[in-house]
Amino acid sequence: MVINPYLISFKDDNEKIFRERYFNDSLSQFRLSFIVVSILYAAFSFLDSLIINEYKTLFHFIRFAIVVPLLALVFLLSYCKCFKNVWQQLIFVCYIVGGLGITIMIIKAPENYIYYAGMMLIFAAGYFFITLRFIMATLAGWITLLLFNVAAHFFSAMTTEMIIGADFFFVSANLIGMFAAYNIEFYKRRDFFLNQQLDKQNIEISETNETLERKVKERTKEFFAAKEKAEESDRLKTAFLANMSHEIRTPMNGILGFTDLLNDPCFTGEEKQNFISIIQKSGQRMLNTVNDLIDISKIETGQMTLVFNQINILEKVHTLFYFFEPEAKEKGIELILNCNLAPEMGVIKTDTSKFDSILTNLIKNAIKYTDSGSVEVGCSRSLNTISFYIRDTGIGIPANRHQAIFKRFEQADINDKRAFEGSGLGLTIVKAYVEMLGGNIWLESEEGKGSTFYFTIKDDYYSGIEIQTTPQNNVRAEYNSSVKLKIIIAEDDEAGFQYLSALLKTVAGEIIRSKTGIETIKQVQENPDAKLILMDIKMPVMNGYDASKQIRSFNSKIIIIAQTAFSLLGDREKALNAGCNDYISKPIKKDDLLTIVNKYLNL
């Protein structure tokens, strides 16, 4: 540590840094000390009135017209930016002025030792309390003592003995204060220097560590890349294969088996109609399994994205309630809705498809595992959090299975036959979606008495305004329902084309087929009177998105309905952006397709 031993100052750039830090560290103490010193200096005026009544006016003038205002002015200046440059000099002046004031009081009343004590307090405050640095405090102390001696010799009637006696204490106070201030500042500077060195060493160590870590990362990059790839492959294999065989083979057995029975003439029409119903249910079950497997694989690999839209949860909850109400009535279960949010509190911004999936899965499960009693759906709001519960009086879940049911392919009650009717992924997907929407999910359940599932979602975007629907590229066509439609079906799969042709039999006057995007564009150009295109998205040569964009460049009136087996998040938006009027995912149901066609062509 390179330091001037007499001035107590660094001989390098550390001096400027130290003074900056000393000022910042001392500012609060300085302000407090000036408040206390001002109060004490003013309070001693009470003794002036009691002890030296004849000089009361003079002493009060010194206190309240000179010293206290000066202290107050310096205190106020401490809130100015420029104060940092002159604060030691200003405190120095305050020290001298305060000491000179006490000196005048001693000269006027040398027989009253209270003022000698006041001078000792001035020295104590200067050296220890008001944060003067050593060199400034020493100068102020000895200058004050010099002024006292000059005034005592030339302007007072004090005897030499009295002056020497006072000097004995004043000189002692200055010496003690000076050496104490020296040591205090010296050790402050030493600590500052050591901390500087320690900081430098820490920086060097940190830089060395970063260099080593960077080298380790570079040398093991290929290893970790291979490890992550292996782990990802393992997750994918687990997600896709764990329950695949059972959940695909079981409904497929029903589809293929009952399809064969339809050709057997020994069964009645009523029995065959029942077979068809079973085939439809098995197909829907297999589709649900495939959808669940796709969703869980995207969640596991981090490919699931969020698309936020403004929705009204009250409308969503009511829609789902009315959708499941017939199913509940068929089982003899009462479906109860307890969602009394004010209309403006129901408007939130969230991922609509994720929210629908969460609520649908939980309500479906509640109905599925409840044989009697009720299923209650409720919701409430607290600030930006929406809370929901789904309570049932079903079979309940054992306590040791409360966490397991949220894991992949786990079922709460494997002894119940209904536990095998599903992929076992529903609650895993629900939990993932809830957490993606910033919420939590938990349950309360007792075996044999029912379960209550609770979940929350965040609404960080709540604005309290009306729902804004996404504008679509809908072109309304005027159509006379007495005339059959000319329809272009863009479908490269033969079975798919035949199926769509059958669905549109009642509304189609002429059906034109195309198998590629380029062929579809050509058919539209050659058949300007065509009213509708069912556009398959995945086709050879040119896909449906690109074909739709090119068709829109020369025909803005024809209705284009995108149809795809992808059914992934964002497909609808991509279709609308490409120029399609609407979107329908495979497998396509007749009622759904005709509803969309009617929506645009007023059939």
What distinguishing features does this structure have?
Helix Hairpins, 17 helices, alpha/beta, five-stranded mixed sheet, Heat Shock Protein 90, 603 residues
Kindly, what is the distance between the CA atoms of the first and last residues, rounded to a whole number of angstroms? 95 Å
Strand order of the largest sheet: 4-6-7-9-8
Given helix and strand content, the structural type is alpha/beta
- Helix proportion range: 55-70%
- On the 0 to 100 scale, the average pLDDT is 82
Tell me briefly what this model is.
The protein is α/β, with parallel strands linked by helices. The chain has helices at residues 14-43, 45-51, 56-77, 83-108, 114-129, 134-155, 160-241, 244-262, 269-300, 313-330, 352-368, 426-436, 494-503, 517-526, 544-552, 571-577, 590-601; strands at residues 3-4, 9-10, 308-312, 334-339, 347-351, 374-382, 385-392, 441-446, 450-458, 485-490, 508-514, 532-536, 559-564, 582-585.
